[in-house]
Amino acid sequence: MKGVRHYPGFLAMAVACLVILYAPLIVVTGYSFNGSTSITTWGGFSWRWYADVFTGPDAPRFKAAAWNSITIAILAATTATAIAVAASVAMIRGGRFKGKSATFALINLPLMVPEIVTAVATLIFFSAIGLTTGYMTILIAHITFCIPFAYLPIAARLQGIEETYEQAARDLYATRAQAFRLILLPLMMPGILSGFLLAFIISLDDFIITNFVKGAGMETLPTAIFGSVKQGIKPNIMAISTMMLAVSVLFVTLSYLVNRIGQRTRS
Amino acid sequence: MAGGMTPAPQGNGTGYRAIVGPLLIPTWVMIGIFLVLPVLLMAVYSFLTKEFRGGVVWDFTLAAYDQFFLNRGLFGDEPPVIEWTYITIFWRSIWQAALATLICLIVGFPTAWFIATRPARTRAVWLFLVTVPYWVNLLIRTVSLKFLIRENGPLNESLMALGLITDPLPLVNTNLAVQLGLFYSYLPFMVLPVYAAVERYNFALSEAAADLYASRWVTLREIVLPVVKPGIIAGCILVFVPSLGAFLAPDLLGGAKTFMIGSLIDEQFRGSQGNWPFGAAAAMILMTLVLIVLTVYARAQTKGDAR
Amino acid sequence: MSTAIDIRSVVKRYGTATALHGVSLSIADNEFFTLLGPSGCGKTTLLRCIAGFEDVTEGEIRLFGQNIAGLDPNHRPVNTVFQQYALFPHMSVLENVAFGLKMKGVSLSDRTARAGRMLEMVHLSAFADRLPAQLSGGQQQRVALARALAPEPKVLLLDEPLSALDLKLRQAMRVELKTLQEQTGITFIFVTHDQEEALTMSDRIAVMSQGRVQQIGTARDIYEAPVNRFVADFIGETNLLEVTVDRIEGGIARVTLPGGHTITCPTAATTPGKHHISIRPERLSISAAGDLTATVERVVYLGTDLQLLARLTTGEEFHIRLQNSARAQVPAPGSTVALHLEEGAARLLAD
Ligand SMILES: Nc1ncnc2c1ncn2[C@@H]1O[C@H](COP(=O)(O)OP(=O)(O)O)[C@@H](O)[C@H]1O
Ligand SMILES: [Mg+2]
């Protein structure tokens, strides 16, 4: 007799799920170390395509794209996180106020509108107001769609923090600003970090919206990779992919650790 | 995500009530100006006249919608009949997205259940493993899938080496490849919310059902699925909505015959063949579809709460 | 009277931890049988083995003579009232109660009629269309009961069904449960950690501790004739004293108390030597010359009773209960009293 948690075949399905999710990534990682110029034949283990990414003919393009991607992700995630912190404090500590549910809908709007629609609308808007597409337009678009991703973990965290801590601080003569800086902000920190990490990765990931609002000559890593892939999958793309994969794994691990620490200080 | 975070009725003892306005101004400005306004403008653009090198002329017309739904012959002088080209593309997108959602559910539910029933330690490992792909760049994942299933790719090579097939399977540029791509892209979106629901599931309910003479599979149908339904619906929305407007999977894995909405819209904004009003109109129609789905979902949720 | 359930040397291990160390007991048909013991002693585990949610590691369980090992829970004619009720949240009260009948293939009209009668029996007919979440705790408890009784099981298992209710409701439900059991004639196996609950409802009680059955008997048996320190201490209030046994003969022991007095008392021990004796605090009287001498340290007013916290001249703590009557002469704290042991106050324990 097996317990009620057991269903025959579910293990197989879970394993299949992992195989499906990982097989392409593992294969590409493997082939990124292929010493051969052809992507079909195996030419022994080699770092050459990694070297190629940094020194090869495409290197300047990828370096510029990587620089853009990373700076945009940092700026967009930081700004979106700051906006989200303010918004979550207002939404969760502000009591009832007029327009609250409309604001709630507004914050979540970027999650509801399909990406391609956001992309089209943003492009139309920038062109209508005569703003030249480029770094700035990408940044603005990224900040906008990163807000809900930063907001969700921050608000969830804040909701779990009882008001009594701040009230105790106020009772002990702290001003509102001091109570925020010394009590609420440190308690919110795991949520803020999670929100930042999520926003950062979402910005780094974005292709569709960026592709619409980037303008000519401007590239981020995804658009640069997409451009190359249109000409066929070259080994250096696999090397870049593997490096981005490594960054993603690093981020999951970070956010996992942040959550672990967060759980220790849960009220 | 949708409706997941209901604002709790928390109080006023912390003094933030007085500065709600200033705290929310950045949010209102950013999303209001850079998303709401653009979407409204897009609605306006869908009623404008196209200009040839991309862009628009400010003459109001229904031409874009006319072009989408009606065929008036090559020179526009014949009696209108229904134009099937774009409706077909939308229809294909809808069923591709629906099928992807179904397959994600068929694979994702057992996976989520399996993970949620592991002991704490192994569960953390499983959860970590299914979360990683969720954080990996979608473009990279799609490119990797293409590399794996292409004509001379590792999948075909190994199947041939195993003697299971003699000629490579022509996977790339088919509906099947697009389907696989959508499924692969959004599978984690199904597993995570379903997992969250199963984790909250009270297994004593299954024991109670078994105690009352229900078999394993009857218990699944009669008790488990109805109880975790909110998680399943959330997962379905999270897979269906992005699948419907997907661009990367159909663009990289599909061909001309597997055109989906995302590519159709994208094409209208590329260089001189573009047609901005038409693209805007197609985007409006896509958004309307998504709104319908979300409204039905919200209805189902509130009905569920009322019960 | 035939045997409903026969549990033979059942051992249950979870990995290296052992929850049941060879439990044997036999429960008669139509009996109200209670498993009583502190939290963690293995009551739920034993119940789950009977219901079929856990496999026994060793030993066997027979239901009306048939070994039920290997039978899935859905094939056992045994129903459970779960501790937290486990009512199906998406089904109405009526659907919940009819569920077992539906699974057994009873037609819609028949099962609706029968579920309706069950709801009548637990006084919930007016709530048939509600969802479980719309009921109070006591009502949910009765739905759980009706749901488990509807398929007419041969044995009903109840895992601390009253523990989530408040005191008044709990007391009312005790009577209701006992009445239901007598009406239906179904064998009840009732799990609780509350001795009062066990004493008031049960035909027989098995006292468990650390995965072992310590004693089986009627309420009177286990209160008046506890076999060991655990049972004596767990059931009611008692004073445990270490004593020297001089002689045991015919179930009567001759014991020297602290202070030197010698008494005879019934015994569970069979060999002379060092043992413990249990002295019930309400079976003592204050007299001029007694079997024990104690100094009163504190007097606690309990309403119906007065509790004297005292210390024997030999140093042991000692409790005395006096009825709170107008005639009671209450010794002042600090005074020394002589205590007389009434008939049946003391019992020599096996350990
Ligand atoms: N699934 C399990 N895995 C490991 N140990 C368990 C499990 N279930 C119960 N136990 C252990 O078995 C012992 C008896 O538990 P239980 O039967 O629930 O006690 P009771 O119901 O009397 O409070 C406890 O020590 C408990 O920790
Ligand atoms: Mg228990």
TrEMBL record, chain A:
Superkingdom as given in the UniProt entry: Bacteria
Keywords: Cell inner membrane, Cell membrane, Membrane, Transmembrane, Transmembrane helix, Transport
Membrane topology of the entry: Multi-pass membrane protein
Pfam families in UniProt: BPD_transp_1
Record's keyword annotation contains Cell membrane: yes
Domain ABC transmembrane type-1: 66-255
Subcellular location: Cell inner membrane; Cell membrane
Transmembrane segments: 7-33, 70-92, 104-129, 135-158, 179-202, 237-258
Biological role: Required for the activity of the bacterial periplasmic transport system of putrescine and spermidine.
Homology family: Belongs to the binding-protein-dependent transport system permease family. CysTW subfamily.
Name of protein: Spermidine/putrescine transport system permease protein PotC
Native source species: Paragemmobacter amnigenus
UniProtKB/TrEMBL annotation, chain C:
Reaction equation(s) it catalyzes: ATP + H2O + polyamine-[polyamine-binding protein]Side 1 = ADP + phosphate + polyamineSide 2 + [polyamine-binding protein]Side 1
GO molecular function, one term: ATP binding
Gene3D superfamilies: 2.40.50.100, Nucleic acid-binding proteins, P-loop containing nucleotide triphosphate hydrolases
Enzyme Commission (EC) number: 7.6.2.11
SUPFAM superfamilies, per the entry: MOP-like (SSF50331), P-loop containing nucleoside triphosphate hydrolases (SSF52540)
Coiled coil ranges: none
Domain ABC transporter: 5-235
Keyword presence, Iron: no
Domain of life: Bacteria
Pfam families (alphabetical): ABC_tran, TOBE_2
Keywords on record: ATP-binding, Cell membrane, Membrane, Nucleotide-binding, Translocase, Transport
InterPro entries per record: AAA+_ATPase (IPR003593), ABC_SmlMolc_Importer (IPR050093), ABC_transporter-like_ATP-bd (IPR003439), ABC_transporter-like_CS (IPR017871), Mo/tungstate-bd_C_term_dom (IPR008995), NA-bd_OB-fold (IPR012340), P-loop_NTPase (IPR027417), PotA-like (IPR005893)
Top-tier EC class: translocase
Subunit structure, as described in the record: The complex is composed of two ATP-binding proteins (PotA), two transmembrane proteins (PotB and PotC) and a solute-binding protein (PotD).
Family: Belongs to the ABC transporter superfamily. Spermidine/putrescine importer (TC 3.A.1.11.1) family.
Role played: Part of the ABC transporter complex PotABCD involved in spermidine/putrescine import. Responsible for energy coupling to the transport system.
Stated name of the protein: Spermidine/putrescine import ATP-binding protein PotA
Organism this protein belongs to: Paragemmobacter amnigenus
Top-level taxonomy: Bacteria, Pseudomonadati, Pseudomonadota, Alphaproteobacteria, Rhodobacterales
Gene encoding the protein: potA
